[in-house]
Amino acid sequence: MPFLDSVRSSDIPSLSEYKPRYSTQWDQLKTVYAKGRYFSSRRRLHLLGLAIFFMVALGVSFRYSPVTLNVIAKDRIPRTQWKKPKEFKIVGLVFYGRPQYVSILDCYLKKNLAINGGFLDEVQFAANTKNEFDLHYLDQLVNTTEYYKKIEIPRVGFGSIWEHAVDNNTMYIKIDDDIVYIHPDAIPRMVHTKLNHLDALGVAANIINSPITNWFHYRTNAVLPYLPEPISATALPANITNPVTWRASELPLYPHIPANEFDFGETTDESPHHSLGQVGGPPSENHRWLPLPPTAAHLAQTPIAKAEYNAFGRAWTSWAIAAQQHYSLLSRIETNTTHLYHFGDYEGVWNMRYDRYNLNFLAVWGGDVAIQLPTVDDERDFTVTNPKRLKRPLLVDTHALVAHFSFGPQVEVRTTDLLDRYRDLANELVCAADNQKQPVDRPDD
Predict the structure, then answer these.
(1) Which end of the chain offers a freer environment for a tag, N or C, measured as fewer CB atoms within 10 Å?
(2) Which of 380, 381, 360 is nearest to 369 (CA)?
(3) How far apart are CA 183 and CA 131, in angstroms?
(4) DSSP string of 376-426, one letter each residue
């Protein structure tokens, strides 16, 4: 009989006098030992000695960790067990420019403020735009809470934004403005992962719609088979397309089984994007994607099958791979199966080993930003050049799940109804009753 199955809870001795300073670790260890029958009183003493030694070691190694050992507790940790460190500030740093996305992000940021039980002491918005409408929207947004701040930067550019994130006693959570979903545990996990891996130069999130993680998500069976509906959205009854619900279960199946793999069509340097109705392009404005039966054969016929482990591979430019990833995430949220996105070691951590990765969502110390400045290509410098130079890798916490709407080459994603779906998701599950979101009518869109 396995050791842990041989202990009875009624036979556990009283060990309260040995309780370490980190009670959550102790409680989890007791739970593990309480699964079956206990042997003899002599073995009881042996177990006691081992437990004390083990907990002292953990108290040193996991100073800030809310869990005992990820081998035991590698499943999702309830948010209520995460403890916010008080020894330093945690600041959200938003690279701002597009209010149509920030409107949705606002709900997640407020949910993660320390005043609301989250980890962010404040959120700083660095205006990486000169558009008057965008700047006016930001001015109104920062007035909604005293924990929002606007940063004035001397020039547009990512490098000048990083120059404001150099405080030694601050951990910054860098957030792109088109992050449209943040898992409730994402920020707490990234903070604690960074503290548990002091050698890491930064800890990035597991990004939905990133070339590297797309490749993994396809292989962990997280991505589901979806294809763009072969009917123009204008040909559908209004009650089907409006209002849009985020729940993928309300979508009908794709109307037929495709005979061939998804055709990405052709683009050129002069015409890098697809027009409506073009092969490989969107069928119409405001169109939706429909699921196929979830089999490996059908999945192989969809865009995700062409994802590559390459920061500049097809998944960086393909609007279709991005759309399929987003629809799959909405389905996984609804069915509570987001654990399928996890990969990496026993902690759910993936070491990038100096491979390039996206900086859409990153936890980094201000002091570690300072030693990497100046920067022109921050993604290259923060994930490849400086980690290699300093022998300090970038890590990905694969349990810290966020959704990034689109890269520059993926403009066709805007022709889907996905932004409406993410807004509906946020309104239902995240936004406060007095902060329900409506589409932002941006003049240039």
Answers:
(1) N
(2) 381
(3) 30
(4) SSHHHIIIIIHHHHHT--EEEEEEEEEEE---GGGGGGGGBSHHHHHHHHH
Instruction: Calculate what percentage of the chain has a pLDDT beyond 70.
Output: 76
Cα–Cα distance for residue pair 161/153, rounded to 1 Å? 7
The angle subtended at Cα 78 by Cα 74 and Cα 81, nearest 5°, is 100
Angle at 444 between CA 174 and CA 411, to 5 degrees: 60
- CA-CA distance, 286 to 422, in Å (whole number)? 14
| C-beta of residue 23 within 8 angstroms of C-beta of residue 30 | no
3-state secondary structure of 29: helix
> Which tens digit of pLDDT belongs to each residue from 144-180?
999 999 998 877 777 788 999 999 999 999 999 999 9
CB atoms within 10 A of CB 317: 18
Report DSSP letters for 122-161, one per residue: EEEEEE----HHHHHHHHHHHTT-TTEEEEP-SSSSHHHH
The per-residue b/e assignment along 290-316, b for 16 or more CB within 10 angstroms, e otherwise, is: bbbeeeeebbebbbbbbbeeebebbbb
Measure the CA–CA gap between 232 and 385, rounded to whole angstroms: 46
Amino acid 18: pLDDT: 30
**Per-residue model confidence (pLDDT) at position 310:** 85
Torsion angles phi and psi, residue 380, rounded to 5? -65, -45
CA dihedral 275, 278, 283, 285 (to 10 degrees): 10
Among the listed residues 273, 291, 295, 275, the one whose alpha carbon sits nearest the alpha carbon of residue 283: 275
Q: Find, among 218, 206, 217, 214, the residue nearest to 360 by Cα.
A: 206
H-state helical runs in 98-248: 99-111, 132-142, 158-162, 186-196, 211-219, 238-241
Please say whether the beta carbons of 306 and 321 come within 8 A: yes
pTM of the entire predicted model:
0.79
Which residue shows structure tokens 């069928």? 283
Interacting residues of 426 by C-beta distance below 8 A, sequence separation 6+: 104, 107, 108, 180, 181, 437
Rounded-to-integer distance, Cα 164 and Cα 152, Å: 9
